Amino acid sequence: MKQIFSFLGIALVASCMILVSCDKEENNNNNQNNQQQYPDFNLDGFNLAHQWDIYVDDFNCPDFSETVMGKIQDGIDAGNLEISFYGGDEADESNNYRNWILDFTVPNTQTGNGSLVVARMDINYYNPQTQRLYLGTNEDDYDNTVTLTQDGKKIKFYWEAESERGGAENSWIGGYINKADVRF
Q1: CB 111 within 8 A of CB 124
Q2: DSSP for 31-80?
Q3: Is the distance from CB of 105 to CB of 82 less than 8 angstroms?
Q4: What's the CA gap between 66 and 167, in Å, rounded?
Q5: Angstrom distance (rounded) from CA 167 to CA 182
Q6: Fewest CB within 10 angstroms: 17, 48, 103, 107, which?
Q7: Local confidence pLDDT in tens for the 184 residues of the chain
Q8: DSSP 151
Q9: Whose CA is closest to 163, among 153, 150, 172?
């Protein structure tokens, strides 16, 4: 009888070891998938206006109040501040996105779904071929070229422009799009 219990004990320990081993293998596979590297994209003509999930990790606009900048910084700190191009017919690029809007959004924690717009800038002009982005607020205008770079996981962008109306500070936006989410 002791031999049966010993045998069952050994079988139980062996079964547990197999299950733990399988779980570790599955976790290792999941970790490898999360670290997947993507080939480089051709960034010529890359259209930010067609992308979803554009995350912002650096931002400044002297035209926004301290309250708005606080909400933007909270979104940056939480890793969930996004920008999106909003306007007319997405297929009509002939107008270079004139009179569209650049929305800065965070998840809507009040309702638990959707996004909450915390700030807006007017898109006076955006051309994906040249990456010229000309943004404005009621206070000032900012015009410069977006710089695009990439690594194995992200397409990174940075835009910084001087005040067109003589303001003291520059405005800038920096962020990224995960390569897994890129739309062409």
Answers
A1: no
A2: HHHHT---PPP--TT--GGG-S-EEEEEEE-TTS-HHHHHHHHHHHHHT-
A3: yes
A4: 17
A5: 35
A6: 17
A7: 555 545 445 555 555 555 555 555 555 555 555 679 999 999 999 999 999 999 999 999 999 999 999 999 999 999 999 999 998 766 566 778 988 999 999 999 888 888 999 999 999 999 999 999 999 999 999 999 999 999 999 999 999 999 999 887 999 999 999 999 998 7
A8: -
A9: 172
Calpha distance 87→49 (Å, rounded): 10
- Phi then psi for 70, rounded to 5 degrees? -65, -45
- Residue for token digits 């079988």? 11
Measured CA to CA, the distance from residue 104 to residue 5 in angstroms comes to 65
The rounded Cα 18 to chain-centroid distance in angstroms is 40
- Give the pairing type, strands 132-136 and 141-145: antiparallel
The two three-digit tokens of residue 18, written as one number: 């197999």
Degrees to nearest 5, angle at CA 168 with 165 and 169:
100
